[in-house]
Amino acid sequence: MHExxxxxxxxxxxxxxxxxxxxxSVKEVTLEIGEVSGVVPKxxxxxxxxxxxxxxxxxxxxxxxIIPIMAKTYCESCEKTYETVKFGKICPYCKSEKxxxxxGNETYIKDIKVT
Amino acid sequence: MSEVKVIEIKKSIFNANxxxxxxxxxxxxxxxxxxxxxxxxxxxxxxxxxIKLINNLKADYRIAVMEADIDSDVDAxxxxxxxxxxxxxLHTGGMCHLDAEMTKQGLDNLNLDxxxxxLENVGNLVCPAEFDTGACKxxxxxxxxxxxxxxxxxxxxxxxxxxxxINKIDCMELFDFSLExxxxxxxxxxxxxxIYPICAKDGRGISELADKIRQEIKEWRE
Lengths: 115, 222
Known about the structure:
The complex is a heterodimer of chains A (115) and B (222). With 115 residues, chain A is an alpha+beta fold.
């Protein structure tokens, strides 16, 4: 359950931003979460409601919106791009190990809606 | 009803923790304290390895240990009995990892007249890897019975570790464990990781690992 720790970390940041902007409350938080970031959206949502109602100054009842980002890997050897979740670290086209992740590791707070 | 306004943030969800961690590292650098974050699965031999390491290093450095567990103080007692070195127990209160703020709180409870602090993180290969504790270096122990394919299954843990100790090498044959294979998988994830095969039980490889830590401490203080 590292998601609970992550939710606390989000609350800390969002509360800080809300205070800076003299906001009365935060209505919605939008995250961008990569497919292979290790953060599971369902678990985030599960502890979100409890955490925002109990651990935040500005976020009572705040909605969570998650934009999933597909994981893609680039192969340096054959210069092709492929789906990371399907094929992993080794390139399915040329079997090279010289590959790196293009997208899918994102764990961003994109924006928040405040009143 | 008041107007709704959108504020762009575009920052990592780990940002708050990463700032805390960087601040802690700066403070440690100033005080010339080396903080080593030690991670592994439950039962990989963290505490046994620690006792052997501390006994090798304690003549050269003033050492303290912070034990992070969900509950209990069995590890803190084992460290004290096995080495004479003071260990404090941090309870994460059900959380599966330590973050930089918890680590800082633990450090504040230690006498800071110290050269080396070893943080024994919660036994888990997933969550501790995601939260920077503010440590100067990360080390993990992979034990032979867990299998040589673990770097493939828990890539992030191997990506964040500077030092990987392969423990329980006395039972490699039993578990069909290949050092060559595990090294290949680790290097696929993290080219810079240094790998040390050890057996905490009989002490094999411990002095090489201790020398690596000596070297890291020296570089940290420069």
